[in-house]
Give the backbone structure.
Amino acid sequence: MEKIKVGVVGYGTIGKRIADAVILQPDMELVGVTAHSYNYRIDIAQEKGIPVFYLEEKNGLEKNCKLAGNLKALVNKCDVVVDCSPSPCGAENKAVYEELGVKAIFQGGEKSEVAQTSFVAQCNYEKSINKDYVRVVSCNTTGLSRSLKILDDLYGVTKVNATLIRRATDPGQVNKGPINAIVPTMELPSHHGPDVLTILPHIDVFTMAVVVPTTIMHMHNISAKVTKTPDLEEIKKKFKSTPRLRVVSAKEKITSTAHLAELGRDLGYSRGDMMDICLWEEGIAVKDNEVFFMQAVHQESDVIPENIDAIRAMMGMKDADMSMEITNTSLGLMNGKKKSKIQKTEVEPEKGLI
C-alpha cells in the first residue's frame, strides 16, 4: 500500500513533534518540514535526515543547511500538509494549499472558519473523513473534549463549568511571563468554552481561565451536570480504561504537574511528553447529578495523536478505532489498557521517540 505523503509547515513546539510522530507511522511518509529562520531545531532536523524547505524567503537558511526547495515545492509533493505555523499564518498559507489542491490540517490557534470541521479523534472523527481542510483544536479544548465525551456517553452531559489554570508559556519561551503573578483572563467565557462547541455542540460549556507562573502543564477544574445519576466507581473505571486518558493517584505520590512531567520522563517518552490527559483519582467526585474532576493537560503534546488521526480521516480511513489504535501503538500510548490487535509486523513501535 502506498504511504500517505505528509509535509509539516513549521518546525516549532508542535511541528517538530508531529514530524517525529509521522516518521513512526507505518502508513505515512514525512516529505519534509519548513523553516522560517535558522535555529538549533533545523540542525536536529538535518541530523534526522528530514528535508528542510523554506517559506517565501530563505532568511539566511541556505548558509546553515541544504534546502530542498520552497513551500510550494514541499506542498506539491504531499497528500496532506500539517500547518503548525503560529496564528494567523496558517490561515494565510491556506491560499497555497488551495492553489495546489492539497489537503491541509490547521492547529487550534486558527479560527474555526479556516477549516470545514474541527477535530478530536475520540469525539467526532467521522466528520473529517475525506475532508480537504480540518482544524485540530487547541490543547485545552482537546483535553476538555476527551474527558467530557466519556461522561456524555455514560450519562448525558447538559452543563459544564470549568476553570482553566493555564501555564504562562512553553518551557523554551524565556521572554514571556508572568514570573510572579496570577493573571485572570478578562474574557467570559474564555475562548475555550465556545471552542468545545465545535466538537461537542450539544453541551452547554462555560469556561473561565487564569494564567499562572509555570511552564509545565495546564490544570482544569471541572463540574459537569448529567441527566442520569452518576456512579463514582463506574466513572473511574471508564476513565481508567479509555486510551489517551490516564488516571493517576496521590497514593502513588503523584501530587502535582511536576510529578506528571517526571512520570513522562520515567516512562521513557521523548522530551518528557505526556500525550494522555491526566486525571487524579482522588479528584473525581459526584454529588447528586453533578460530576467533579481535575485534570492536567500537557500543552506541548496532547494534540499530536489527534493530528495523526486527522491525516488518516482526511485520506479516507473510515475506522476511527483502527486509526487511533495504530496511532496509540506507534506512539506508545496503550498504557496497558488493552492489548493491541495490530501485528508487530505491521507496526514497529519505537517507544520513547515521542
